[in-house]
């Protein structure tokens, strides 16, 4: 199980706020909220230069996912991440998180 206990989708009960390392200096979105249980994995990806767009741990209901910019897609594959296909779109959109 993940670190979410009674945390429903759409709630903010298990998030932390981090200063995003990749947003431009003039961007209004300098901080990003992530599920606390993904913190170390996201920070590790940032250390490797991978730009994440969004993430979700799955809240004990489904698999955790991490979305990255298209330019970093191959880097994620090289790190052994498995592709997650967004059910709403007809294309691969991200990867399954390893830490949850």
Brief write-up:
15% of the residues lie in helices and 27% in strands.
Secondary-structure blueprint of this entry?
Layout: E1 15-19, E2 31-35, H1 39-47, E3 52-56, E4 65-68, H2 73-78, E5 83-85, E6 92-96
Antiparallel strand pairs: 1-2, 3-4, 4-6, 5-6
Question: What can you see in these coordinates?
Answer:
The protein is of the alpha+beta class. It has one domain. It is 15% helix and 27% strand. The chain contains two helices and six strands; from the N terminus they run E-E-H-E-E-H-E-E. It has helices at 39-47, 73-78, and strands spanning 15-19, 31-35, 52-56, 65-68, 83-85, 92-96. The strands form two sheets. It has a four-stranded antiparallel sheet with strand order 3-4-6-5. It has a two-stranded antiparallel ribbon with strand order 1-2. The mean pLDDT is 82.
